[in-house]
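Help!! Second protein's tokens look totally different from the first
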Amino acid sequence: MTRRGALLLAAMLPLGACAAPATDAAPHGPAPGPARTATEPVNGTLDLSPLRQSGMDYDPVPSPEALAARRPIVAAGSVDGWQQGPALDSYPGGPLDYRVLMRVRITTPLKGVRSAASIRDGVVFIEFDQGAVIRDDALPPELWRLEKSVADFERAIPTGTRVLVFPLERPAYEQTVHAPGDPLPPGAKIMSIPPQGLVLEDPGLVRLGSERTLVGGREPLRGGSTAAWLEPRTMDEMIERLRRAGFSE
């Protein structure tokens, strides 16, 4: 894509989180049902493209309860807004590697929320790659403009959208932090999620009265021969499924 001679540069590094290894705790919960052919709905109003900027190579976890068994924190809530995350140095003479943070206000703690000292005032800060920058040879690389702003992420997935998250406190960055981004509350930590670690309820599908209202954030909902991620039709059904599997606080 060119924009007044500008060349988009892909963000330099992927998020640090990835799917849990096969040696993690064995899943528990309801037995698999019959095979299904349902697919994720595509006629909602959320714009998932900012979160799906590149494909990820990972081993899909077959069900929500299997992922919940592997993660230290599981919670449902709603998007409380977006804010600028850290800007990291990439390579000498290269552009910065920007992160954006989704604030999630927890309304339904399912696992590990109450014991997590890094969750303050019921809000978790989920990190995402902010994407490409636009090359401008008239400026030094660290001043090249981002293709997508924080406001673009807010328009794509607005405040109030219901979400389910499977976060993990992010380890320290390997790269040098060029700028810290917007401040977090004292003691709060940035969280990362695996590829299947964000489920959203599309408000457009809810308004239409659609039978299925759930979509994946970083990756489409799928996984396992029974398509277990697609069996819950709404966020309430997803939460109830996890509760039946023993995840409740």
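Here's the second one for comparison:
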Amino acid sequence: MTVKRISTRKVRSDKKKSIAPFVPDVFRIWIHRIARHLEIPEGEIGVFLIDAAVHNDDCIRFFSAYYKRNLSHENSLFLGNDFAAPIDEYIRITGNRDRFKVRVSKTLYNRIGEFQIALGTPYLAHATHALLRYALHTKSIVLQIAPTINYESLFENAPFPRPHTQLTISDLAFPKDSSIRNKKSKPEENTLSKEVSKQKTENEKNVGRKLEERSVWSILR
């Protein structure tokens, strides 16, 4: 009896993995200008931007408003929140968009995966898009990759990037599109206070009724 050996295909530990997020066409313009300045392919510029963002302290802190699960970064732990804003609000695209393919190392791929899990999105491309957008909109990160480039020249004849705006606590608890926020009802704690006040009023009435029964005026009725 002969036993057939099933051959397993070996996977290189340094094999790069592809990610293809949908990004606005204007991102391609900015990336193309950086690539032309450094004379390297656009895909490599994308990898540099994503890698710089996911390891940037300010970037990780900025996205803490969107974390639905915990994320460890360096010596810090960012706690997730069930009421965190969805990352779709940050990467919302108006206008034309297209796939931007990047090939990242396994180490960077795993790090983006951790970031994706913290955001609570099922799509790795969404997490990648968020990092890419943050990097392109942050002058210090672009200059980290291309120190000699004129950052303002990237936006000639192209839309200038909008600044980053940190979400407030009310935005986290009640997102703008949330039905809870649009309701006129007050939070649960106010409802509880109403019930306590109602009970207190009923108790006062009962006490008043008992005093009235014991009062001399009740006998004269």
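Reply: Different proteins will give different token patterns, so don't panic. The chain has ten helices and six strands.
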